[in-house]
Specification:
Number of helices of chain B: 6
Structural class of chain A: alpha/beta
Helix content of chain A: 40-55%
Strand content of chain A: 15-25%
Shape of chain B: globular
Strand content of chain B: 25-35%
Number of strands of chain B: 7
Number of strands of chain A: 10
Shape of chain A: globular
Distance between the termini of chain B: 27 Å
Order of helices and strands of chain A: EHHHEEHEEHEHEHHEEE
Radius of gyration of chain A: 19 Å
Distance between the termini of chain A: 14 Å
Radius of gyration of chain B: 15 Å
Oligomer: heterodimer
Number of domains of chain B: 1
Strand order of the largest sheet of chain B: 2-3-4-5-7
CATH superfamily of chain B: Fe-S hydro-lyase, tartrate dehydratase beta-type, catalytic domain
Strand order of the largest sheet of chain A: 4-2-5-10
Number of domains of chain A: 2
CATH topology of chain B: fumarase
Chain lengths: 279, 182
């Protein structure tokens, strides 16, 4: 059994959130540059170029690339051969608390959805834990902004709706959102499972690298088709009209009930911030 | 077209703006989001005076990150504007001329602009570090308890935004998307 020091978890969580907010992943930056080159609308091209300049500025001057430094979403992959003493959730929350209070990040969490009082340290984080064999301990973090999250949805389709029903739902969702979620987007789609599972699939799809492809042949084909269909909507950067509404579509699938075809769409803005580390 | 404007704004200059114009604003602008708008409108409902002068003014929908030492403001990109739709007309009645945010807004809001000779501009969502470079001074002038959502008075130089709804009823989103839709 390998012991994991929870203080180290706290330190890493703090470091990862500050880094995620200031440093866009290299492959996301490359995807944005490619989109700027290929964009046919002069205005949308200029907008994407400014987004790229902003990413460099964030890196050079250690500034958050977006003022919405999000709700802290954390995935922990924990091997069955590791152990720790104490409360893993509290260790994560302490890391988030330190990142947001000491790292000059915005506190965007309220303690209750209806009384709306700010917790002033961006806790609690949303923590998902996945148990696996072996002695791995992996942390994945993503500060998730409100503007794009607000445009996401879960819909219980029926088997008869099929792949065409899914395509229509995804394209309509992106088109109706227009410029609100800050396109060019990354779109995470979860298909299958049940009501809550498909939402998790869509979220996990957004944690995939922007340049990877699904190993499932049906999902792989659907990712490519959806990317083309979304870019054909004409929404463009920030909704000003253009040919690059979407940088990538990620589809994750899971077995489901004979009567169901659950679909979740999780929208990610162009600031596709995520970081990870293995302890 | 590139247009350079001083704020407070000359209402005649606002009427000349057309969708797609790239505007560079220099002068004083105020920040405000959902919670601040709610409070401003509650004051107007009670016929009380506002803590800021919105006549010929500019309101920017933003909740910045805390400023790092040596900087006037933290990262300061726009938030989604549709959440302010229920409040905007009351402020337009008080003489507000320019609102800056991101994303589409309600039909009712869009249709109210010609009546008041006002415009809606978009700043680039997510380009928050870059936008902060055009803010030279920042101070809280009302509702300090709201933190990032407090009303800040900003002194800006060449603050960049794009005319999205003009005072003639034109809509950049509608026209732009129509042009590139396949």
């Amino acid at each position: 059994m390998r012991k994991i020091d929870l203080q180290l978890v706290t330190d890493k969580i703090k470091e990862l959130f500050i880094d995620a907010c200031e440093n866009i992943p290299e492959n996301v930056l490359n995807a944005l540059k490619k989109a700027a080159e290929e964009e046919q609308s002069p205005l949308s091209k200029e907008v994407i170029n400014k987004i790229v300049e902003n990413a460099y500025l964030g890196r050079e001057k250690h500034l958050p690339i977006c003022q919405d430094t999000g709700v802290a979403v954390v995935y922990l992959t924990i091997g069955s051969e590791v152990y720790f003493e104490g409360d893993i959730y509290e260790a994560v929350n302490e890391g988030v608390r330190l990142a947001y209070t000491q790292g000059y990040l915005r506190k965007s969490v309220v303690r209750h959805p209806l009384d709306r009082v700010n917790t002033k340290d961006n806790t609690p984080a949303i923590v998902h834990i996945k148990m696996v064999p072996g002695d791995v301990f992996k942390i994945d973090v993503a500060p998730k902004g409100g503007g794009s999250e607000n445009m996401s949805l879960v819909k219980m389709l029926i088997p008869a709706d099929g792949i065409e029903g899914i395509k229509k739902l995804v394209v309509d969702t992106v088109f109706n959102a227009g410029g609100k979620p800050c396109p060019p987007l990354v779109v995470g789609v979860g298909i299958g499972g049940n009501f809550e599972k498909c939402a998790l699939l869509a979220k996990e799809a957004l944690f995939r690298e922007i340049d990877d492809e699904s190993s499932d042949p049906i999902a792989n084909k659907l990712e490519k088709e959806l990317l083309t269909l979304i870019n054909n909507t004409g929404v463009g950067a920030m909704g000003f009209g253009g040919t690059k509404t979407c940088l990538a579509v990620k589809v994750n699938v899971h077995p489901c009930h004979i009567a169901s075809l659950p679909v979740a769409i999780n929208i990610q803005c162009h600031a596709a911030r995520h970081k990870s580390c293995t302890l | 077209m590139k247009v350079y404007l001083n704020s407070p704004i000359n209402p005649e200059e606002v009427k000349k703006l057309r969708i797609g114009d790239e505007v560079y604003i220099t002068g004083v602008i105020y920040t405000g989001r959902d919670a601040a708008h709610k409070r401003l409108c509650e004051l107007l409902d009670k016929r009380e005076s506002l803590p800021i002068d919105v006549k010929n003014g500019v309101i920017y929908y933003v909740g910045p990150t805390p400023a790092k030492p040596g900087r006037a403001i933290g990262s300061a990109g726009p938030t989604s504007s549709y959440r302010m739709d229920p409040y905007s007309e009351q402020l337009l009645k008080e003489g507000l001329k320019v609102m800056i945010g991101k994303g589409p807004r309600s039909k009712e809001f869009k249709q109210s602009l010609p009546k008041y000779g006002a415009v809606y501009l978009s700043a680039i969502g997510g380009a928050a570090a870059q936008i902060s470079e055009s803010v030279k001074k920042c101070e809280v002038v009302a509702y300090e308890d709201l933190g990032a959502e407090a009303i800040h008075r900003l002194e800006v130089e060449n603050f960049y935004a794009i005319v999205t709804y003009d005072s003639k009823g034109n809509d950049l989103f509608e026209q732009g998307i129509e042009q590139y839709k396949k």
